[in-house]
Amino acid sequence: MSDQPAAPPRALPLVLAEPRGRKKPPRHLADLTPAERKDLLVEMGLPGFRAKQVATHYFSRLVDDPAQMTDLPAAQRADLVDALLPDLMTPLRTLEADKGTTRKTLWRLFDGALVESVLMRYPGRVTMCVSSQAGCGMACPFCATGQGGLQRNMSTAEIVEQVLAGARALDRDEVPGGRGRVNNIVFMGMGEPLANYRAVVGAVRRLTDPAPDGYGMSARGITVSTVGLVPRIKQLADEGIPVTLALSLHAPDDELRNELVPINTRFSVAETVDAAHEYFARTGRRVSIEYAMMRGINDQAWRADLLADVLNERGRGWVHVNLIPLNEVRGSRFTRSRDEDTDEFVRRLEAQGISTTIRDTRGDEIDAACGQLAASE
Question: What is the pLDDT of residue 5?
Fold first, then answer.
């Protein structure tokens, strides 16, 4: 533990209220089911069958220039695009690392809120890390986003558009490695995904709906992270969508986790891990345990032993531990663990039969941790 006194933990509500009086994001094709898209056009006096043509341009052809939508009649094209494809976000900055294969984009939403997404290209796959909220209300003290508080939830379409923007960049050969496709999506950007449950599940459905109604990717390529909103974890298990659950645990004991992840004062380590194990039992999907390694805070060898005990108490083979070298926030007392302490942590977990890896630290030089680039603005 740090020798600095910790602020007393505060209980957090399950879903934090957004500020009153905010305008909602523009309604977009990705917010709607295929039937709702058709109904909207009919209500506007436009042919309903055009909805599928517009969806084909958006999800399959990855077209964002109306002039290229030549199968739409010129007299109706502007109305169709205005109805289903309003502008959602504007790129403010794009920073590159790893010879251009890691690209972080800072977006300004329609109301001025700032969010971030990261495209990471690896041999054989492309991963998009997306935000689900502008800011975050979970107040984890080591996280850049948590320090800024919650501004608002993002809409389903705003979440989807982050992925489609990356897909367009790949399709246009703007990322080194040739044309490609987004294979994996991780909800590990700004925000607590399960605190914006409806929009996040809606985005997952749009991204996995078969083309041209959606992007047509496999749900098994999607990971949804959470700090441990237990009722929402159970609700996600009921959705019938085989996404991977990532539990941001960061400590195996309540005393420390109350400080690092304040929602733990409402849902204890035991309750949270039980919910994660139930997710595994219901879906058959192995759970990822995310654990940010913080020097002198949570990286002691005895805590590795305790973490192994907590996880193995529920059974073997149901989790994979992902140790994350902390992305340090300037001015914060939380710093990255020494390599030798991280290596010992790995050794102790593996000795107890727990699959463990150390996350690849991509994009350090471009502030790739969620919230760092937005905070700099």
Answer: 39
